[in-house]
Write a structure and sequence with these properties.
Blueprint: E1 2-5, E2 11-17, E3 23-27, E4 32-37, E5 42-45, E6 50-53, H1 57-64
Antiparallel strand pairs: 1-2, 2-3, 3-4, 4-5, 5-6
């Protein structure tokens, strides 16, 4: 599990990658922000709405900070 930290070293998100390439993105409070589904090559938000084609997990993290 990779941790994403801000400039001050605080954890702002965690990315869990499965062996098949799928990813789950969680915020600091362990709430799910969204998913990357490698077999479909799409990134979805928490509600399974497609937000981008390809691995756009960074967008999920940047949207969560606001």
């Amino acid at each position: 599990m990779a941790e994403i930290r801000d400039f001050y070293g605080r954890i702002i998100a965690r990315v869990e990658e499965k062996p098949n390439g799928d990813k789950t993105v969680r915020d600091f409070y362990n709430n799910i922000l969204g998913y990357y589904v490698a077999s479909r090559d799409v990134t979805t938000d928490f509600y399974n709405r497609v937000i981008g084609h390809g691995d756009c997990t960074g967008m999920l993290i940047s949207n969560a900070k606001k």
